[in-house]
Amino acid sequence: MLLHCAHARYVWNLAVEQHAHWQPGRKSAPGFAEQCRQLTEARRENEWLREGNADVQQQALKDFAKAKNARFNSGFGEPTWRKKFRHEGFRVIGTDRVAEFNDDGTPKVNPTTGKQVMGRSVVVHKLNRRWAQVKVPGCGWVRFRLTRPELPGSKTFRVTFRNGQWHAAFAVIPEPVDAPGTGEVIGIDRGVTITAALSDGRKLNCPQLTARERAQIRKHQRCAARAPKGSARKTAEYAMVARFKAREANRRKDWCEKTSTMLARTCDLVRFEKLNIKNMTRSAKGTVQEPGRQVRQKAGLNRAILAQGWGLLRQRTEDKAPGRVEDVPAAYTSLRCSACGWIDKNSRKSQAEFVCSFCGFTCNADSNAAVNVAAGQGGIPRPRRSAGVGGVTTATSRSSTREPQLNWVGIPLF
Ligand SMILES: [Zn+2]
């Protein structure tokens, strides 16, 4: 499988090179069909390439063509170089011939020949509840852990190798989760101390690395720093660090998947406050001439923000519940009282505590913000400021028993 990875990477990088040297005015860079012809030629001349699987190499070209076509919309831009150990992977195309069907269940028929259209399907068998096996060319059956109860029915799959782990990913677009139909609207406030505060009072936290695991990371980083340059020990220590980082990312991803499924299943409408994470995590470094202040602190905050998986949670909820996710402008959601709508920055006593300066409503600050997000755009209407004589409006001044009013020298008016 590592050899498959090497072949796929080699072919991909050749394609990148062909397109990188293309300049306006020259003959256009070769497309997929032309590249496939060139691949056949290259396989004839190059023994190393010939020993590999032709389908794997051709799929690398197909991946490149897809990436090239989607470069304006995918968010990844132009396809770039693949590096050994970093971008290891290859795509396998299914070998089973199966009949294709239209959306209404009738067999798909080729309009010119009148024959039934045959598609490809991956050969995959379920072994038991947890394990299944899939056929990889040149390797025979490869067992893998199932992450879903049902078997994937896809035409191709991609095998990747990262941080010492092999993964098989089947490209299947799952059906969206059905709305419960209860009309429940939930607001979510995302924060650093509480990852997601829900408007019904629940507080969900994204699992982080334990203190012990963080200490292990520091230990391995220290060992790596002290090991001689280019030594096997340095590589091994950095590999250990990477494994811990991968573990953290896996935990975050797992949590986001489970939470977004829960939200999609139990709520009809999910409202998130609109965050610009890219701007929020901007570095404070500044320039050489004008260095920023508190650069390390900001870097730490940025790391904490990114470790919460805010963007992933929003993205996956949208994927599972299309059309049932809304973004609410984040302005004043943390300062507005969720009981009366009063906005006052003094209401927020501390990071966790919210005490309304108008009606005295007391609540956890994050839950308060979540209720405001659930109220949607515009939020809870603000109360009219009562006719106090320029003084601070308090809860008592609204009550029916009026306090005696004082004039400017402190003598009661009545
Ligand atoms: Zn209030």
What is the fold's blueprint, element by element?
Blueprint: H1 2-20, H2 32-45, H3 47-51, H4 54-69, E1 88-93, E2 96-99, E3 118-121, E4 124-126, E5 131-136, E6 140-145, E7 156-162, E8 165-170, E9 185-190, E10 196-198, E11 203-204, H5 211-226, H6 232-266, E12 269-274, H7 277-280, H8 295-306, H9 310-320, E13 325-329, E14 353-355, E15 362-364, H10 365-374, H11 395-398
Polypeptide structure, described:
This protein is α+β, with helices and mostly antiparallel strands. The protein folds into three domains: 2-89; 94-170, no CATH class; 185-329, no CATH class. 35% of the residues lie in helices and 17% in strands. The chain has a five-stranded mixed β-sheet with strand order 11-10-9-12-13. The chain is globular. Mean pLDDT is 84; it is low at 387-414. Zinc ion binds at residues 337, 339-340, 342, 356, 358-359, 361.
The gist of it:
By secondary structure, the protein is of the alpha+beta class. It has 3 domains: 2-89; 94-170, no CATH class; 185-329, no CATH class. It is 35% helix and 17% strand.
Structural class: alpha+beta
Distinct small molecules bound, one entry per kind = zinc ion
What's the total helix number? 11
Distance between the termini: 93 Å
Note the overall shape. globular
Give descriptors for this structure:
disordered C terminus, alpha+beta, 414 residues, 3-stranded antiparallel sheet, 3 domains, 11 helices, binds zinc ion, 5-stranded mixed sheet
